[in-house]
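Reader question, answered in our methods column.
A reader sent in the components of a multi-part assembly and asked whether the whole thing could be modeled at once rather than chain by chain. We filled in our standard form and ran it. Here is what they sent:
COMPLEX SIZE: two components
ENTRIES:
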Amino acid sequence: MKVILRNPRRELDIEGNATVKEVLRRLEIIPETVLVIREGELLLKTDRVGEADTIELRPVISGGCR
Amino acid sequence: MKCKVCREPAVLEIRRHHAVFCAAHFFEHMTRQVERTIHDFDMLQPTDRLLLGVSGGKDSLALWDILTDLGYTVDGVYLELGIGGEAGYSSESLKLAAQYAKNRDLNLKVVDLAEAYGYTIPEAAAETRRVACSVCGLSKRYILNKEALDGGYDVLVMGHNLDDEAATLMANTLNWNVEYIGRQQPVLPATKEGLVRKVKPLLRIAERETAAYCVLKGIDYEVDECPMVGGNTGIRIKEWLNILESQRPGAKQQFLFGFLDRVSDQFATAQQEQVELEECSNCGQPTTAGECAFCRLQVRMSSRG
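And here is the structure of the entire assembly that came back:
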């Protein structure tokens, strides 16, 4: 599967199928810090991502002055 | 997973509420949380004229959407900070904010920092050798209050969310910065002439939820991080809190609301005793002494070689 990361924008390839939870664990990403999006749809941690899928891990933490 | 309300396929899990929602019931949940916050802290009256600080990010656009749907009249104000040059971060954020306002037929005023005040945030950071977030925060607080005051608005609405407030409280607690802790309130009343009442209706909503709201509603927002935010302490503290949250869902909310419900009054009293505000000798805005920090910054920027 192809994984798109932001800030900075980059792409990773991960072999095989996996649940969202497994993908995040493999990349050491805390689930609370991202939305996982496939073709415009939000995925839950139990959703399975296929070999041919592209998913975006969109960070949700904003920083700076508020 | 199924929506806890209707049993249709879910789109989002909120672990601290032990809940998963479909899109429709998630929107309902968000609206209820905002309504509850407004009610519990007595933030707004139905007839209030509201000005919202709009950044083009997920929080301010989600809040604009929710408040408008709730029937409030909310105008937006965007500060063009001059970050990233032409077609850079600030221009892109403005484009997204303006697009949203146009789509919903809402009023958005744009204040260009360079045109109106003679400097950009990168210039001010370089000149003062302070971190960009510090001069940016100072400029935003002053100008947003001024815009609300000059425009005759009753309330200035800010998009601070649960993560923002929990991280600020954590940062100030780690330093035992009693004065700042005392000022951290969901409602900052207009205690002095020249100050506009300020409220934070997203207090119960985590930033992951405002991002999900925008994605599900099809609201385009600025996803990229401000390029000047590198090394910002607030972001690091948010990351620590998220590690805690992942092991103990609800930790952030418990930390913030435990403070607000049980101890914030004591800090507020201590802060009032310590700080006596007077008028800035230049602009007349309330300040602790002499010329206010914003006027000092402006003088310094205008006297550059």
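What stands out: Residues 20-26 of chain A form the longest helix (7 residues). Chain A has a mean pLDDT of 92.
Send us your own complexes using the same form.
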